[in-house]
Known about the structure:
Helices cover about 30% and strands about 25% of the residues. The protein is α+β, with helices and mostly antiparallel strands. Strands 3, 7, 8, 9, 10, 11, 12, 21 and 24 form a nine-stranded mixed beta sheet that branches. A five-stranded mixed beta sheet has the order 16-14-15-17-20, covered by helices on one side. It has a five-stranded mixed beta sheet with strand order 28-27-29-30-31. The mean pLDDT is about 95.
Amino acid sequence: MRISRIYLPTLREVPAEAEVISHKLMLRAGMIRKVASGIYTWLPLGLRVLRKVERIVREEMNAAGAQEVHLPMVQPAELWEESGRWEKYGPELLRLKDRRDREFCLGPTHEEVITDLVKGEIKSYRDLPLCLYQIQMKFRDEIRPRFGVMRAREFEMKDAYSFDADDPSAERTYHDMYEAYKRIFKRCGLNFQPVEAQTGQIGGAFSHEFMVIADTGEDTIAVCDKCGYAANVELAESRPEDPVGGDEDDKALEKVHTPGTHTVEQVSSFLKISPKRVAKTLIFDTPNGPKAAMVRGDRELNEEKLTACLDVAWAHLAEPMRIEQYTGGPMGFSGPVGINLPVYLDSELDGARNLVVGANEGDHHYINATPGVDFQVKQVADLRLVGEGDPCPRCATAMRVTKGIEVGHIFKLGTQYSEAMGALFLDKEGKEKPLVMGCYGIGTGRTAAAAIEQNNDENGIVWKPQIAPFHVYLMPINVNDEDSMAAADKLEKELEEKGLEVLMDDRDERAGVKFKDADLLGIPLRIVIGSKNLKQGKVEIKGRTEEKPRLADLEKAAALAREFIDAST
RNA sequence: CGGGGCGUAGCGCAGCCUGGUAGCGCAUCUGCUUUGGGAGCAGAGGGUCGCUGGUUCAAAUCCAGUCGCCCCGACCA
């Protein structure tokens, strides 16, 4: 392909709208352009990458026994009413009406449509298991789209849905998908980590996310290198240490004056006591009224765990005014003693004695507060956020905490959709049962962006050959030199005969401009044809990450290129 | 939705405070020179200053409203 024949507008300067490196580079390399917030056009170069990701995904899904279908993007409200999500999904679901005032939505995901499709057709256990997938645009009216295609409102996703007769079979399918996902992200050349995850909006029994390791990731994950435990910190289990002061005698509760001590650090240094002995009391508003939650002073509370423990839809830290209303004291001095709120205690504080807690009164704390003695505890639960170096819940080894980009998410759904929508089949005994479902998503555009996020340098993108838009950047320096162009044409053919995709820079630009664009586009191998070298029958070959080019015989260049690409795949 | 910021040429920005001819760099076009890491010189084209209303002799500039975009917090592929 000649560069003069591909719509490839590269940018020298970074558009002000871009924040993260992948977004900047995708704009600069002419891969995408923004149309509206969270809505993007994919240009030829970007689309080539997207198609490569899709191809890998297709091959692996097909190999895993899934079959491709194509479901509608515009979906009738009735289906969503059946599953109950018309009410539950919220404003992220873009709703619209047709000319006859009938309600529809743009599909943010396709459980409803697929379940509806299957329920009419699957009647017998003999039809199972079945796994269908599609690759298609989704629309989610995100509160805050950002980072280019990484978190767009309209985005391409591969979504697969499985149907099994029972749990063991469904779990086998889940496992097969898990393995297929690992192969997909490996083939995309990504450094990734599968983690245990929450089920969120989609629901279901359990799930895993596939995280591409990158500092700009929006998720935080905890990984144990010894036993392999890995989880999103949203739900990573913590392993309690020995309770603070657990072997002491209970001392008498005592109110002390602690002027100007709003934070745990201030309290602990004022009282000359370890922050571990200070217990934070946090006041939350929930749909079921205010609640108090306690964690050790040097810990952070995990709101996800709290909402799970309370079994509520949300829990937000209460506003200062509300705190005063609930506890009688100002923010920063809340404590469990004598308050009229149910107290939830982090498991790490279970058995702790003689803690420092707020006194619900400005500039005062209690010392020697012991749960169960000086205040009542409604429930003990794992409520704290796992941090760097915390012990693995399985094997106690210190865990790593890193940032990740969620590129894939798989769920074992169980029967929630099939029951709600009446997707039933007859088992061997002739008994009617709901289908056991799973669903499996991959953000293809996000995967492409994540690959850039993980592989770039100060000059531009560094593609792995598997998903690179082209394999070889073929660059005749002087396009007005007939010999150079003849050599370039010939070499292009030879490279293509070897199955390589070639982008020939046939622009009448100065060499510097071409070199800069070559680096920006990040194509794995660059071959430069200069008139001087050509007279000796030589061309220059350089891998994108290599420091210096090497000279090669023109006749051998295609074979060398093939070797290089194979070696770096 | 709450908090912060920005809308001036295709891109990056200045001008606004203190109202008076709309500017700079890159890109584009023409010519000459140059020709292996984003060339030099000379010239040219391109703007309803986001939009609406107000104040004023006069508004990019002041005021009000509105729309859009970006960043930080509650979501998720």
